[in-house]
Structure formats: structure tokens, C-alpha cells
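Data deposition worksheet. Section B asks for the primary sequence of the deposited chain exactly as it was used as input, without tags or linkers unless they were present during the calculation. Section C holds the resulting structure in C-alpha cell form. Section D is free text for depositor observations; keep each observation to a single sentence. Incomplete worksheets are returned to the depositor.
Section A, Depositor: J.P.
Section B:
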Amino acid sequence: MKMQSALAALCATSLVLSGCSGGGGGTQTAPTPAPSPTPSPTPTPSAPAVRTIVMVWDGLRPDDVNATDTPNLFALQQAGVNFQDNHSTYPTFTMMNGSSFATGSFPKTSGFYGNTFWTPPQGTGNTIPAGKTAAGGTQSYTDPVFTEDYQVLSTLNDYYGGQLLLVKSLFATAQAAGLTTAAIGKSGAAFIQDLGKGGVFLDENTVQPRSLVTELQAANIPLPTNVVNNYTAGEAVTLAGTNGTPTARAGYVTFDTTAYDPNGTITVAARDSSDETQGAPEDASNKYMLNVFTSYILPQKKPMLSVIWFRTPDNVEHGYGPGSANAKAGLQSQDARLGELMAALKAQGLDSTTNVVVVSDHAHSSVSGPLNLYPLRTINPSASAPNGPTINGATSGTSAASLGGVNPSGYSFSGDVRSADLLTYRGFRAYDGAGCSTSAMYGISATGTATIPVRLDTTGSVCGAANTKYQAISATGTFRVPAPGSLPTNGIVVAANGGSDYFYVPSHDVTTIRNLVTFLQQREEYGAIFVDSRYGALPGTLQMNQVNLENATRSGNGQPDVVVSFNWDDQATVQGKAGIEFESAGGQRGMHGSFSPVDVHNTLIASGPSFRKGATVTTPTGNVDVAPTVAYLLRLAMPQADGRIINEALATPASGSTPTVAASSISPTAPATGLAFETPLDPTGRTRDTSLPLGTYTITLQVKDLTIDGKTYRYFDHAKAIRQ
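Section C:
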């Protein structure tokens, strides 16, 4: 029987924290990081484990949970526990939080720095990882690498001797206890839950183990087409002629604009946020993967622990921005998947014995520079459908939309920053691993002037290929990392991640670090700056160990030297959604990764026999709390975790003690002074911001300390740069 028909009948039935010393209110200055809390108590082993499913809604903002767009999730929230003050791990990226869900830990413990990081291949004696991508291509590790790919993660795990994650994961803990596990969904994010490959696995690219491939084909269930790249020789997979492309998804709908060419000729592609035709392009892919889980994996494999991680609503938020029509369609799509999951549990008699935890890896902001510099603009909607083919039910291609005038109810055309370009222009030797590119988010001022005009490399001398369009202020538009051993003295490698950037200085030259920090402090696109403690206390900065980002094992081997959050404004509004931020250049309309309170405060909702009914938890919690809490529900323990068991939410808590919470702020011991701030309107730095005459820069890191049973956990609310 075909999977689709079987499931049609079924569907018709339908944390950021760390250990710290003490609490107390007020302002603190650059305290020495305190040791992690002692291990959480080991639960009573005689108590029965309770099946638990963790469903990750990638990028879900708490204010998007409502009875209209997400009725199933809203009902779950009302029935179970709503966590009002949950925290994403900083930097607020998918893979960073994927590792936190996997281990209950921060980078200081896990040693993981996704989404994009650099394993320095420079210098004698250093080797370079080598491997393929999920699509079968060769992956470069000379440049920074994007980790949302199971093959990339496998290569890196081998490179690090099976220690890509330096601590034992929740899945490994469950498997060691004899429990069956299942990880389903988004490439990379699902796989990092089960790096040891000890359970059942299905993502957008492959199926593991090989025996499950055989079982699914025998049941006439189609497979992700890239599964053929995972198995070779005697294990090679041949897809059925009727297999199709169940996880294919369309690219974003775009339109062309000449607004970035002063001569009005050269076009740049812009995301069409006015589009209402595409919906969630990954809707069919998510539905397919959930159907495989509910129709086959759940009844046949009976996993006690499952993580279902879909890229919705994050994918459409990136493409069109929070609050857009397609972003709302993404919410509705993901909510339909939750409804199908709950219906399947009920149909299989598992609803009363299964915990369902819904959590987001981070929230989401709109990409934009300050609205007084870059006012929002109208997008005149297309009168016709996009010109591309329909892919799994979603439209694709270019629409006939056009850019209109200034409109406070419109869309952003600003917010992109290419750090390697800005640094190169200023005399640094900087590389981000990417070539020439264009973006309609580099900024159009109130007068219609493009911050970085588009140019055409007619000869190929800049981009390497003739007639290539590019936007850059330096003499080059390509910033590939030099071959191993060829990085210039004191060169800088930028891992561009989105709402934060990582900077690697393999020479660890203090003067270069100081000059880099001064540059970042003077450019108003950048926010809070964190520096490896090996460089000492630099004025205006905090050390990376104060936000859980230093790991001795990864120092010089994957850990950045400097991490900077892009600047943000949590009050500015686009399409009815508060929160804007700059981003690493990429043309996105929505982004995360910053230290904004909008990105940090994400969604956590839980319901089931282990949780209280109709309850609200107001004490701070974090994504690192999820794994130790789920472990407790499975009657396991994770003593290495940085997170805690969230006793306030449980029907039978591990401890009956009442936690206390104290808020405070942390600032550098001394501000940076004598600075000349540079407006985003002029990337060359020649135009200074005369509204900030003092020339001082510092940071405020807002924290909450929760103390329970003699142990204190720290949650980070936001980190803000203050320029005067």
C-alpha cells in the first residue's frame, strides 16, 4: 500500500544559562566566570520512563502562537505548560542550539560552534577535513563550512576523532540505556541529535540505518532522492521508478530591481515579500517526513525518544520576513503537522502516555538598518504568477513585482553587511570564503541612494568570470580563503553566520585583534563584542567565557577569536513584528543569531502525562534545559549538562524546592574611548556620526540568575552595545 494513501486516512482522523556564583541585583563589572553547577540529581531508576517527542519549530517567535495561525499549538499551550521566559543559546543559530538540544550544554562544554565555523587548516602540521556533501558534491574545508548537512557533520566528527560534541548526548544516553530513538527532519539539525548513528534517522537527504531503507522501500514508501549518495558498493540504493522527489522544495520567489544601479540598468534580485502564492515551500517535504514517522517509524520501531525538527517557519521567515503572508502560511503549515502528529498519537492509543515538547531553536527578527536611515518601501505586487515551475505544490521563479516608494507599512531594503569587504577596504587581510555576490538588502537611503551600488565586472578581473554582477567597496568582490599555508600574516577569516559573525585570527596577534575590535566598535552596524580571554580585557568588550563561548579543546581549532552580534533594535517594527537587525550579507528578509531579546526569547511549550496541566512557568528557562529535563522523564541522567531539570513544569519534580531569581547587568571594566563612529550610510568610513560626540563604546549584558538547591544558573536576556 502506498504511504500517501495510508496516511491520508490517518490524517483524516485528525535556554540560555550557565553556572555562576551568587545572584543579587544591580550592575556587575566583568566578573570572573564561575564554575558550572553540580550535576542534577539522578532520578529514581525504578520509575517507568515516559515516551517523549520533542518537536522543534525552527525560528518560532512566541508572539506567533495564537488561535488563528497555530490553533493546534495554541491548544497544546493551554492544556499543558507555557514557558514565558525561555532562552535560546547565544549565538542564536540553528546548529548552535541543535548542539544544546543534543547535549544540554553550551559551546564551553560541547565545543561546537555552528552554524558556520572554520577549522583552521593553515600552518605546517595541520590537516584539512575532506568529504562530500549530502548532495554528493565535494565540500571545501579551506573556507568556513556550513554545518546543516549530515555528511559535513559526519566528516567533522571523524576529523575530531568522534568528538565533534565533546560530551555525551541525550540520544547516546538513551541508547546506552536500551531505549530506541528516532531523529526526523531538517538536514544537519536532526542529525546532530544522533551523531553516533545509534537510532532511526530520516532527514531531507537520507535514511539510516541501511536496513530501514530496505524496510521503507518494501512498504512502498518513497525515499529522499539524495539517499543514493549515502550508500555505495554492496549497500548502494536504487530508487523506485515511482519514488519522485518527496523532499524537494522551491526557492524563494524574487523580482528584479534596478534601484542599486545609479544608471538604472543593472538589475539585482530581491525577495518578493508581497508574494502570496508560494506559501511554505517545504510544506510537502515536512508532511512526507512526518507521515513516514507516524505511519511506520512510530508503530514499527516504537521509539521512546524522538526529535522531529522541521525548518518551518524559519525558512519562510528568512525569505520573506516575519509577519509576511508566506511566513503566516509557514506557521499554518507547521501547525498542520502538529495536528497530524497529535491525531496519529490518538489513533495509535499513545496520546495519554506520550509527552510532547514543542520548542524553537531561536526566534526571528526582520533584517533592516535603522528605519530613520533606511525607511521601509512598498513592493508593488505582481499581477501574474511567478514564472517558474511548481515544485511539490509551491510556486517558484521570478515575479513581476516592482519596488515602490517610501512606505512605513512596507518592507526593508537594508541590513546586509559583508565584514570581509569592509575589513579589506580598511587594509585588513580578510576572507569569508565566498565570491562575488549581489544583494537587494545592502541599503537604499531615504533619498533613494544605494549604500553599495551594483557593478558589472565586464572582464572577469574582479570576480573571475566576465560580465559578473557584484557589490563591494574594496578592489575585489571575492574573498576566498587562500590555500593552506598561504594565509597572509595576521590574516582574518570571517565565518559569516547571519545575526552574528565569527572572526578567526590564526596568528593570535594581539595588535591585529585590538585593531579589529576598534574597527567593529566604530562601525554602527555591529553590536556587542566578545573576545577570547587570551587577549586580556580589551576596553568596551566582554570576554567570550562570560557568555559560555570558550572551550580549551577547540581553542585554535574551531573556536573563534572574536564573536560579534550585529546591532539590533527590538522596538522597530516591520509588517507588524517588532525587532530588526543587521545581518551577514545574504539577501535575507528575516534573520536570527544576534544577542537581541527578540532572537533570544524563543518558544517552549510542553504537554503530556509528565507535565502540569494548564500551567505557566514564569521563571527563566533555556534550550539547554530541554535535554536534562527529557532525560529525567526517561529516567536517565545527564550529569555533564549545563542545563537543569525544569522542576516547576513537572507533575512529579525531581526537587520540590522553590527557585529564586535575581536580575543584574554586566558591563566591561572600562569603556572604549576616543572613537569616531561611522554611519552605515557610508561603508567607506569617511562619514562620521556627529550625533555621538563622546566617542565611547561599551556593552550591557542583561542576565538572570536562578538559584535552586544551592546551585545557580545564569540566563542571558540580551547584550547591547552603547555608543555615545
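Section D:
Residues 104 and 627 are 5 Å apart (CA to CA).
The chain has a mean pLDDT of 93.
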